[in-house]
Write a structure and sequence with these properties.
4-stranded antiparallel beta sheet; 3 helices
Length: about 100
């Protein structure tokens, strides 16, 4: 016989999952303007990434913690479309996502 999950338990589990997903989304969503982590996932090199970011008004802040990533100061509206087209994730920058502070 299959075990049955009670409807209230399923409802609570679904709500908890929704809250966790929303929290994760808010944590990773880049700000409208400010410091952002640019992480290439589509084969874009760090040099290409820097060029695209600068061409769209961003200032390079530091190298990111992960290979090829950089931290920039800029406007999400100007950066989002050109970067996502070439396979770059635009994320909120946190202290855990920043590198040594060396310029890219």
């Amino acid at each position: 016989m299959l075990s049955r999950v009670s409807l209230p338990a399923l409802a609570v589990s679904t709500q908890v999952a929704g809250v966790l997903a929303a929290f994760l989304g808010l944590t990773l969503a880049p700000p409208a303007q400010g410091t952002m982590l640019l992480m290439p996932i589509g084969g874009t090199t760090q040099g290409q990434l820097a060029t695209i970011a600068i061409d769209h008004g961003a200032q390079i802040v530091a190298r990111g913690r992960w290979d090829g990533s950089i931290v920039v100061q800029g406007e999400r509206a100007r950066l989002w479309q050109p970067l996502t087209r070439v396979g770059v994730l635009v994320l909120a920058s946190t202290s855990s996502g920043c590198g040594t502070g060396a310029s890219a």
